[in-house]
Design goal:
Length: 249
């Protein structure tokens, strides 16, 4: 079973998953599909682009029920990649690459509001714990793996065009906080943590061998901007398979 947002769904990575809603942006080559293929598991993939922790727990999304309702207690493995949309992580980075005057528009300006952002970062920690507890309750026999986000940004000191240095620093702060909170949520709820962010630091979107994409306009048939590419999905699948095998051996 796979739960999560676009970072797990894989929008733009061809081919699309059969019978997936168009808005889900769900790829047949995302890491949940790759893991299921390699481990010989039957897969139910309800990952959905734009999903928040609320969409996993109790809020429908574009007419689809909360993702947790797909669990029936027979699962042996559940992966969860969520949290970035709760704090506007990728939308903020996308907006940072737009012309300055656009940032005065109210919906965009809110993405950079320090009070709103810091409150969201505080709240997402408890939301992630709620997800962990709820998944374990619905799937008591499953191993539940929180899979955090692949690195998007290079380390400090490296250029990140078209982002400014201050916007890149803000993005790193959000990413680092999400990574830490995901690990804490896994530890606090008895789930496991697959450290995709740590493994991908040298494969950021501006690197020579990127696992994620740079900002830009969405283009049909290409991975979505500021999201995993096909190589990134394969790398995350490798991490999940390695962790599952390491504990099972």
């Amino acid at each position: 079973m796979a739960l999560g947002s676009s970072m797990a769904a894989g929008p733009g990575i061809r081919p699309s998953a059969a019978d997936a809603p168009f808005r889900a942006g769900r790829s047949a080559r995302n890491y949940p599909h790759l893991v299921a293929d390699r481990l010989g598991l039957d897969l139910t993939d309800v990952t959905y682009s734009g999903a928040t922790t609320a969409n996993i727990l109790d809020e429908p999304q574009h007419g689809t029920p909360p993702q947790i309702e797909a669990l029936d207690g027979t699962e042996t493995l559940v992966t969860v990649t969520i949290g970035g949309n709760d704090v506007g992580y990728v939308p903020m980075l996308m907006a940072a690459g737009l012309p300055r005057f656009v940032r005065w528009l109210p919906p965009v300006r809110e993405l950079f509001d320090a009070t709103t952002r810091d409150r969201a970062l505080v709240e997402v920690g408890e939301s992630l714990r709620r997800v962990g507890r709820a998944v374990l309750e619905r799937a008591p026999h499953a191993r539940v793996l929180f899979v955090d986000y692949l690195a998007l940004l290079p380390p400090p000191g490296e250029p990140v065009p078209p982002l400014s240095g201050s916007d890149a620093a803000l993005g790193r702060r959000i990413a680092d906080t999400l990574e830490r909170l995901t690990g804490q949520a896994a530890a606090d709820t008895g789930c496991e943590w697959v450290r995709a962010a740590q493994a991908s630091r040298s494969h950021h979107a501006w690197s020579a061998v990127p696992w994620t994409t740079r900002p830009g306009l969405p283009w049909p048939g290409r991975p979505a901007p500021l999201h995993p590419n096909a190589a990134g999905m394969r790398a995350v699948a490798d991490l999940v398979v390695e962790q599952v095998g390491a504990v099972s051996d």
